[in-house]
């Protein structure tokens, strides 16, 4: 009895605080500026920490940017590397070129490094990023300990509460709105519920998002494509506008949310078996965008999470549907927290918890001008064009590789390309260069 | 060599490794170590299968020969022939040291030694049965691997290319041959003769980025 009493006494001022400072402003779309102050303090602390590390550390350990690379790669094409012209003769030394290329690939391959978190230039006082930084001073360690306390004892409970509230409100709200008859009032209420709950959830990560070029925000009847780093991407985008989501039906909590959301707003959820049938998927999406009153579809054409340093191959399926494509580039600031979901290492829940115990999630979202498929351009070329636009805006590198390589091996057809090119050089297309002695 | 994963072992590992390849900084060794761990899946040793996870390598026509070179006892300086089952980080660095850029400020003797080491690495790649000679069969094998992707080339064409190259090598090494003289194969000395005066320096090295230049740009 007394325990419950005490718990009640502790909890109620806590809840009142949460309600007043966070929930109400979220519903009204008002920003109290608390996050800005928090971030300013955080930035100052991290700058101080960097200076201390630089002073205390060895000269060589200051900068260690793995995204630059550790070796100078020989980017020259095969022809130049072999220093020959078409139809030249086979030489023993050709093996040099290939063995060098092979070793370069072994030491540093640009694909697999995209499937692990980006390395930081300077430590951001999180244990998890502390791979190559050593003990510097007592003051720094104290700050780090303080940081751990703040993050795990103050911020984490707050964030978990918010997330809980946000998700429950979403489920309850959308179910209620779903009871209303189909009308513009219902659509507006549905948007309000979605936006409020998203804002609450974003605050659950202490998220600060900067939207650029809002005039290009995706319009109704279009398709929005973006680069994919984490499940949070959806949250980031839906805070600024409502979208129709596309995806597979899940079980568990996610399934409950999906079923609730679809009651108030026509999201497109596919059963697992339906996902395999590409024509069915394309057909349903085409029907959706044909109705100009429906909200824009949100698609992530990479198909998997990449670590936000590059953009990988865009699958052409989304670009065959037709309609206007609205590209969006999302770039997270890794200093405050790592947003990349490494699905082979962490489950979704542990990933979300890791995000909640980071400092904050800070990101930039750029809306790009709409694009349509041009005459004579096929889906693959169009996909690459959109991918380039997103990569350039977000400051990401562009890779032609398929994100599916996270789990699968390189296709044999791809492998044989290199051999075909080399053998064409030596032999031409079937003709032989006979060596006379 | 160490087989444990604890921090103190790691430091010992690195220190031992630095003594075998002094031209590379400890910073670069740490980075290579991290790459090693990534390839080995956090194990202390790498096996052949671990190289399957490098997509860039899959495109290389002589991929299997390169991977084999990592486990070749002759390259690892562990014996005259045979393949190791697994290699540790020190072995990894030993193989990497064959691709060190030749430092022209070293004495002429050192430069010559470096060159010989690189050519020996290449020789081992061709001489798969470790008998000290590159026979016609072995040569054909390499050419076939390099060319096998082209559907227009039949096996016969690949063979003729190899045969032609072999004849050329024979003429360089043995001079004029009698009509019924059989050329056994290219020995390492012959191999060196073929390469005399030809610059291999620019073709067979992997250069590490200089960390200081990056520091200035930041």
Describe what this molecule looks like in 3D.
Chain B: InterPro entries: CHP3, EF-hand-dom_pair, EF_Hand_1_Ca_BS, EF_hand_dom. Chain B: It is a lipid-anchor. Chain B: Monomer. Homodimer; disulfide-linked. Interacts with SLC9A1/NHE1; the interaction enables an optimal Na(+)/H(+) exchange activity. The complex is a heterodimer of chains A (437) and B (218). In chain A, helix 1 packs across helix 6 (184-203), helix 5 (138-179) packs antiparallel against helix 6 and helix 5 crosses helix 8. The N and C termini of chain A lie far apart (104 Å). Chain A is α/β, with parallel strands linked by helices and 437 residues long. Chain A contains 13 helices and ten strands. In chain A, strand 4 (244-248), helix 8 and strand 5 (268-270) form a beta-alpha-beta unit. Chain B has 218 residues and is mainly alpha-helical. Chain B has a domain at 10-131 and 192-218: Recoverin, domain 1, CATH 1.10.238. Helix content of chain B is 54%, strand content 5%. Chain B contains ten helices and five strands; from the N terminus they run H-H-E-H-H-E-H-H-E-H-H-E-H-E-H. Chain B has helices spanning 7-20, 26-40, 55-58, 63-71, 89-97, 108-126, 136-147, 155-174, 188-195, 211-217; strands at 46-47, 86-87, 133-134, 186-187, 207-208. A two-stranded antiparallel sheet of chain B has the order 1-2. The two termini of chain B are 38 Å apart. The relative contact order of chain B is 0.10. Classes of the chains: A alpha/beta (437), B mainly alpha (218). Chains A and B meet through strand 1, helix 4 and helix 13 of A and helix 2, helix 3, helix 4, helix 6 and helix 7 of B. Strand 1 of chain A pairs antiparallel with strand 5 (207-208) of chain B, so a sheet runs across the interface.
């Amino acid at each position: 009895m007394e325990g419950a009493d005490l718990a009640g006494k502790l909890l109620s001022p806590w809840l009142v605080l949460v309600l007043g400072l966070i929930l109400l402003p979220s519903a009204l779309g008002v920003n109290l500026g608390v996050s800005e102050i928090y971030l300013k303090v955080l930035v100052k602390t991290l700058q101080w920490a960097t200076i201390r590390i630089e002073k205390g550390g060895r000269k060589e350990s200051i900068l260690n940017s793995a995204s630059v690379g550790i070796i100078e790669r020989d980017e020259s094409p095969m022809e130049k590397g072999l220093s020959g012209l078409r139809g030249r003769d086979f030489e023993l030394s050709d093996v040099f070129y290939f063995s060098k290329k092979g070793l370069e690939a072994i030491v540093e391959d640009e694909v697999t490094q995209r499937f692990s978190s980006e390395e930081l230039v300077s430590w951001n006082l999180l244990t998890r990023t502390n791979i190559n930084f050593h003990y510097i001073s007592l003051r720094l360690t104290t700050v780090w300990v303080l940081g751990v306390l703040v993050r795990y004892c103050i911020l984490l409970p707050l964030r978990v509460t918010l997330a809980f509230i946000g998700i429950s409100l979403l489920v309850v709200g959308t179910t209620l709105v779903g009871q209303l008859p189909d009308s513009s009032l219902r659509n507006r209420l549905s948007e309000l519920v979605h936006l409020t709950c998203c804002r609450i959830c974003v605050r659950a990560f202490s998220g600060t998002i900067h939207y650029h070029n809002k005039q290009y925000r995706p319009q109704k009847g279009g398709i929005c494509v973006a680069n994919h780093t984490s499940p949070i991407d959806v949250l980031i985008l839906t805070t600024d506008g409502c979208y129709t989501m596309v995806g597979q039906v899940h079980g568990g909590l996610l399934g409950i949310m999906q079923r609730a959301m679809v009651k108030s707003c026509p999201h497109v959820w596919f059963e697992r078996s339906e996902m395999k049938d590409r024509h069915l998927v394309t057909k349903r999406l085409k029907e959706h965008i044909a109705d100009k009153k429906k909200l824009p579809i949100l698609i992530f054409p990479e198909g998997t999470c990449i670590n936000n340093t590059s953009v990988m191959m865009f699958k052409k399926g989304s670009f065959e549907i037709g309609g206007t494509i609205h590209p969006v580039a999302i770039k997270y600031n890794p200093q405050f927290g790592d947003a990349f979901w490494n699905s082979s290492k962490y489950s979704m829940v542990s990933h979300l918890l890791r995000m909640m115990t980071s400092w904050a999630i800070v990101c930039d979202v750029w809306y790009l001008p709409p694009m349509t498929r041009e005459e004579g351009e096929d889906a693959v070329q169009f996909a690459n064009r959109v991918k380039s636009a997103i990569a350039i805006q977000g400051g990401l590198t562009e890779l032609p590789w398929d994100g599916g390589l996270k789990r699968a091996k390189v296709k044999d057809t791809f492998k044989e390309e290199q051999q075909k090119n080399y053998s064409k050089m030596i032999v031409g297309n079937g003709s032989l260069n006979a060596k006379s002695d | 060599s160490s087989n444990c994963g604890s921090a103190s072992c790691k430091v010992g590992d690195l220190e031992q490794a630095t003594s075998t390849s002094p031209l590379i900084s400890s910073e670069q060794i740490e980075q290579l170590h991290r790459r090693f761990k990534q390839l080995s899946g956090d194990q202390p040793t790498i096996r052949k299968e671990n190289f399957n996870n490098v997509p860039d390598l899959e495109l290389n026509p002589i991929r299997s020969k390169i991977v084999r070179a990592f486990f070749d006892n002759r390259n690892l300086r562990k014996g005259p022939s045979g393949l190791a089952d697994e290699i540790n980080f020190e072995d990894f660095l030993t193989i990497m040291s064959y691709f060190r850029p030749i430092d022209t400020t070293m004495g002429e003797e050192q430069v010559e030694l470096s060159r010989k080491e690189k050519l020996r690495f290449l020789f081992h790649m061709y001489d798969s049965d470790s008998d000290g000679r590159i026979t016609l069969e072995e040569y054909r094998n390499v050419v076939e691997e390099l060319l096998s992707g082209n559907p227009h080339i039949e096996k016969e064409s690949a063979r003729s290319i190899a045969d032609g190259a072999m004849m050329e090598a024979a003429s360089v090494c043995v001079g004029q041959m009698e009509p019924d003289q059989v050329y056994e194969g290219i020995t390492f000395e012959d191999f060196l003769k073929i390469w005399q005066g030809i610059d291999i320096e620019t073709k067979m090295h992997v250069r590490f980025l200089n960390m200081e230049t990056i520091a200035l740009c930041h």
